[in-house]
Specification:
- The complex is a heterodimer.
- Chain A is built from 15 helices and 11 strands.
- Chain A is α/β, with parallel strands linked by helices.
- In chain A, helix 4 (108-115) links the parallel strand 2 and strand 3 (119-124).
- The radius of gyration of chain A is 21 Å and the shape is globular.
- An 11-stranded mixed sheet of chain A has the order 1-3-2-4-6-5-10-11-9-7-8, sandwiched between helices.
- Chain B is built from 4 helices and 2 strands, in the order H-H-H-H-E-E.
- Classes of the chains: A alpha/beta, B mainly alpha.
- At the A-B interface, helix 9, helix 10, helix 11, helix 12 and helix 13 of A face helix 2 and helix 3 of B.
Chain lengths: 487, 112
C-alpha cells in the first residue's frame, strides 16, 4: 500500500518556522522525503532539488538564529512548474527541444517566492510547453493522479497539482492558458487559482500564448492560495503586460463570508440541458456544482441561473487564438541560440530538423493549426473572427458582472479520466477545457475549490469566477466553499 | 498515399483542409512531417477548423478585436542603461559558437 502524506499548510509551516518552534531544515527534510516516496509512481517532477533545498533551508534557519527578518513563506516547500525559468537549474517545458537548457535568469515569481523565504524543492512535469489537459504530452512520460495512479492528474500543470494533491508539499506554481491550473486542481483535489491577467508577472515564464498565459498557485487551503498570490502578485516592470496597480489584500478578505453577495450559475456550463448547457458535463460533477451553489446560498448569498450565450464560443475561439500565438512564440526554437540542434546541410534544413526532432506531436499540431489560422487569406476568417469573439465574451461577462458579484460553474466536465483514454482524438481532449477557457479569453480571474467527490470517489472542483481584479471577493466565496466541503 | 479528393471531401466545406494545405503549412512552420503525419494532421486539424467554422457564421458587426484583455498599450521602460545578460553565459547555451557569435551551417547551399 502507498504511503500517504498530509503536509501542514504553508501558513502553519511559516508560522512555526518564524517563531522557532520548528526548523526549516526539518520541514524541508520531511517534504523531500514525501516527494521521493511518491515520485516513482507519480512522476510529478522533472527534477528534484534535494541538495539545493536543504542548503536553502539551512540558510533560513541561520537567518532566524541570527535574529534577521524572514519572509511570510519562511521554510515553506514549493514546487515550480518546469516552464518557469530558474537561474542555474535546468528548465525544459517537458520538451526534448529544451532538454539540458539552463536559464541564465529566474522568473519574477521564482525570485519573489525565494525572497519570501519559500524553498524550491523541484521542477514539476507538464504537458510539453503547457499544451494539454492530462500531462500525457510530456517528453518525459505522464504524471499520475495521486488519488488513483491509473488516472491522469489533469494538465497541463499536472505535476504541480499531483505533488500538492499527494500532500508532499503545500504549495506549487502552475501556469494557466486555458485551464491548466484549475482543471488539474479539480482532478487532484486541491485549490488552484488563475489570477486576473496581468496580476502576476510572466517574466521568465516560457511563453505559450502570451495574451492568455497567467501564473498562479496550487495549495491545500484557500488561505494558502491567498497568501502565495499576495507574495507572487503585483506590478513587475519587466513584464509589459503587468497591471501597474497595487496588489489587493486577499488574506483580509477571507473571513468576510458571502452574505449579500449575488452569485450567478452559468446556465451554459451547468450540465442541465433544459438550461441550454453544453453537452459532456457529467451529472455527478454538475451535482457538486449545484451543491456548492446551495452552500453559498445557505451562507447568505443570493443564487440565480444566468445565461451567457457567448461562453459556448470560448472553446473554438481558444483553439484558434492559443495555437496562433503559440506558433509565433515557438518560432524561436530553431537550433541556433540554445536547445536541441539536429544536423542539416544548410541553416534552414538544420532549423527544420531541430524542430522536427525536438517538438512532440501535440506541439506540432498546435504550431500547424496556428500557422494555418494566421495564413494570409484565412487570417480574418479564423484569427480575426476569434479575436472579435473575445470582445463579445468580455462585453457579455462584464454586463453580467453589473448584476452579479461572482459566477459559478464546474471546473472540469468530469473527474480524472484513465491514462490514454483521450489521447487518440485531440478534440476529445480539448473539450476538457470548456468551463475554464472563458476566463482566459476575458482575462478575468477564476479559481477551483475542491468540493467533494464524484461517483467514482475522485475529487471534484467547483469554479468561482470574478470580474477583473475581483480576487478578494472570489476568495470570500472560496473560503465559504472550503468550510462547507469540510462538513 | 490516400486519395486526395477523399480527404478533401471529408472536411466541412467552410473548414475544408486538404493534404496539400497541411504540407504547405508544415513548410511554413519549419516542420518536416512524414506522409503518415500529414495524413493524420489533415483529419485532426480539419476537425478543429470545422468547429472553428461555427464562429465564422456569427455576425459580430463592427465589434473590435481584443488583442489583450487589459488594454495596456505602448508600455515602455525608462530609458536607462541597465546590465544585460553576460555574453559568455548566453553563448554557453548555444549548440555551436565561433568568435563570440552563434554558428550555424551555411545559409546557402545543398538544396537551400
Amino acid at each position: 500500500m502507498t504511503e500517504s502524506f498530509q503536509t501542514p499548510s504553508a501558513t502553519s509551516i511559516a508560522a512555526g518556522v518564524r517563531d522557532g518552534s520548528q526548523s526549516a531544515a526539518d520541514v524541508i527534510d520531511a517534504a523531500i522525503g514525501a516527494v521521493e516516496a511518491r515520485e516513482g509512481e507519480l512522476n510529478a517532477y522533472n527534477l528534484v532539488l534535494a541538495d539545493d533545498a536543504r542548503t536553502a533551508a539551512a540558510a533560513i534557519d541561520q537567518k532566524i538564529a541570527a535574529g534577521e527578518t524572514v519572509g511570510p513563506l519562511a521554510g515553506v516547500p514549493v514546487a515550480i512548474k518546469d516552464n518557469m525559468c530558474t537561474t542555474g537549474v535546468a528548465t525544459t517545458c517537458s520538451s526534448k527541444i529544451l532538454e539540458g537548457w539552463v536559464p541564465p535568469y529566474s522568473a519574477t515569481v521564482v525570485e519573489r517566492l525565494a525572497a519570501a523565504g519559500a524553498v524550491m524543492v523541484g521542477k514539476t512535469n507538464l504537458d510539453e510547453f503547457a499544451m494539454g489537459s492530462s500531462t500525457e504530452n510530456s517528453a518525459f512520460g505522464p504524471s499520475k493522479n495521486p488519488h488513483d495512479i491509473t488516472k491522469v492528474p489533469g494538465g497541463s500543470s499536472g505535476g504541480s497539482a499531483a505533488t500538492v494533491g499527494a500532500g508532499a508539499v503545500p504549495v506549487s506554481l502552475g501556469s494557466d492558458t486555458g485551464g491548466s491550473i484549475r482543471q488539474p486542481a479539480s482532478l487532484c483535489g486541491v485549490v488552484g487559482v488563475k489570477p486576473t491577467y496581468g496580476m502576476v508577472s510572466r517574466y521568465g515564464l516560457i511563453a505559450f500564448a502570451s495574451s492568455l498565459d497567467q501564473i498562479g498557485p496550487f495549495t491545500t487551503t484557500v488561505a494558502d492560495a491567498a497568501l502565495v498570490l499576495e507574495v507572487i502578485g503585483g506590478h513587475d516592470p519587466r513584464d509589459s503586460t503587468s497591471i501597474p496597480e497595487p496588489m489587493p489584500n486577499l488574506t483580509e478578505a477571507l473571513g468576510k463570508g458571502v452574505d449579500g453577495l449575488r452569485i450567478g450559475i452559468i446556465s451554459e456550463l451547468s450540465g442541465d440541458p433544459s438550461l441550454g448547457s453544453v453537452e459532456g458535463i457529467a451529472p455527478d460533477v454538475a451535482a457538486r456544482a449545484a451543491a456548492a451553489a446551495a452552500a453559498l446560498e445557505a451562507a447568505g448569498a443570493s443564487i440565480e441561473h444566468v445565461s451567457i450565450p457567448s461562453s459556448v464560443h470560448g472553446l473554438p475561439a481558444y483553439y484558434l487564438i492559443a495555437p496562433a500565438e503559440a506558433s509565433s512564440n515557438l518560432a524561436r526554437y530553431d537550433g541556433v541560440r540554445y536547445g536541441l540542434r539536429s544536423d542539416g546541410p544548410n541553416a534552414l534544413a538544420m532549423n527544420a530538423a531541430s524542430r522536427t526532432e525536438g517538438f512532440g506531436e501535440e506541439v506540432k499540431r498546435r504550431i500547424m493549426l496556428g500557422t494555418y489560422a494566421l495564413t494570409s487569406g484565412y487570417y480574418d476568417a479564423y484569427y480575426g473572427q476569434a479575436q472579435k469573439v473575445r470582445t463579445l465574451m468580455i462585453d457579455e461577462f462584464n454586463a453580467h458582472y453589473q448584476n452579479f458579484d461572482l459566477l459559478l460553474s464546474p471546473t472540469s466536465p468530469t473527474t480524472a479520466f484513465e491514462l490514454d483514454a483521450k489521447t487518440a482524438d485531440p478534440m476529445t481532449m480539448y473539450v476538457n477545457d470548456v468551463c475554464t477557457i472563458p476566463s482566459n479569453l476575458t482575462g478575468q480571474p477564476a479559481m477551483s475549490v475542491p468540493f467533494g467527490v464524484g461517483d467514482d470517489g475522485m475529487p471534484v472542483g467547483v469554479q468561482v469566477l470574478a470580474p477583473m481584479m475581483g480576487e478578494a471577493t472570489m476568495f470570500r466565496a472560496a473560503a465559504v466553499l472550503e468550510e462547507a466541503a469540510r462538513v | 498515399m490516400p486519395d486526395m479528393s477523399e480527404s478533401e471531401s471529408s472536411a466541412a466545406p467552410s473548414g475544408a483542409l486538404s493534404r496539400d494545405d497541411v504540407a504547405h503549412v508544415a513548410k511554413l512552420a519549419l516542420l518536416d512531417l512524414s506522409d503518415a503525419e500529414i495524413d493524420r494532421f489533415t483529419g485532426q486539424l480539419g476537425a478543429v477548423l470545422e468547429s472553428a467554422a461555427k464562429l465564422a457564421a456569427l455576425d459580430l458587426g463592427d465589434l473590435a478585436p481584443t488583442h489583450h484583455p487589459f488594454g495596456l498599450t505602448n508600455v515602455t521602460r525608462p530609458d536607462e542603461i541597465v546590465p544585460s545578460l553576460d555574453r559568455d553565459i548566453v553563448l554557453a547555451q548555444a549548440p555551436d559558437i565561433e568568435d563570440n557569435r552563434f554558428k550555424t551551417p551555411p545559409a546557402l547551399g545543398e538544396d537551400s
